[in-house]
Design goal:
With 220 residues, the chain is an alpha+beta fold. Among the domains are: 89 residues, Alpha-Beta Plaits; 30 residues, no CATH class. It is built from six helices and seven strands. The strands form three sheets. The chain has a three-stranded antiparallel sheet with strand order 3-4-6. It binds iron/sulfur cluster (2 copies). The site of one iron/sulfur cluster (SF4) has 13 residues, from helix 2. One iron/sulfur cluster (SF4) binds next to helix 3.
């Protein structure tokens, strides 16, 4: 008898779980049924990449000190830093620098750890090529800045969902003056500064000068 009741209980629990999972799945479907389709007529129209998009790396040859930190922090030791030691000046002389974007995983470690900030991530994502070896960029190719979607005259930039005003899901025909739903990182920073949650460089300067004057007073 107890075995039969346990079986009925298990069956009921599984049926309730199945119904809940089904409802969750269908809720996503019904939510999308209310939305209009978004078609981007690429390459004439392009979505604006997000602020922290990790695209092709930009490199500044003149700022590089050939320290090879980028190689050591890269998960696959990818950047090739070609340098020679000048015996007279006892300094490294940089000859060439290259990154193979056919292998790079765009993790951004090299950019994060470079001590002279000569590496940066751009919003360039169009890296398709017929030959993967052509994706091995030397310092000249790495030094080129890409044309951004918003400044390219041949492209109609479309705002991504994060850039759209609240309640708007279709980027076509949205006036550029309408504010987006989310806040920009600099707007959040300004709000935090106004609320006193974070210190600014000016605050630090004021604090250090006041502590210096206190020290002077106590010494006097
Ligand atoms: S970490 Fe920066 S400075 Fe050092 S070799 Fe790499 S790119 Fe050059
Ligand atoms: S982005 Fe990552 S994988 Fe690519 S070169 Fe830099 S550290 Fe290496």
């Amino acid at each position: 008898m107890f075995g039969f009741l346990k079986q009925v209980g298990d069956y009921t629990r599984e049926a309730v779980d199945a119904a809940r999972n089904l409802t969750q799945g269908l809720s996503v479907t019904f939510d999308h049924m209310k939305r209009r389709p978004v078609t981007v007529q690429y390459p004439y129209e392009k979505l604006i990449p997000s602020e922290r998009y990790r695209g092709r790396i930009h490199y500044e040859f003149d700022k590089c000190i050939a320290c090879e930190v980028c190689v050591r922090v890269c998960p696959i030791n990818l950047p090739v830093v070609d340098w020679v030691m000048n015996k007279e000046t006892k300094k490294k002389e940089l000859r060439n620098y290259s990154i193979d974007f056919g292998v790079c995983i765009f993790c951004g470690n090299c950019v994060e750890y470079c001590p002279t900030n000569c590496l940066s991530m751009t919003e360039e994502y169009e890296l398709a090529a017929f030959d993967r070896h052509s994706l091995n960029y030397d310092n000249v190719a790495l030094g080129r800045l890409p044309t951004s979607v918003t400044t390219d005259p041949s492209v109609q930039p479309l705002r991504e969902l994060v850039y759209l005003p609240a309640g708007e899901v279709h980027p076509h025909g949205v006036s550029p003056d309408r504010p987006r739903a989310g806040k920009l990182p600099e707007q959040i920073l300004e709000e935090l500064k106004a609320a006193g949650s974070i210190k600014t460089a000016e605050d630090d300067g004021r604090e250090s000068s006041s502590s210096a004057s206190n020290e002077e007073e106590s010494a006097g």
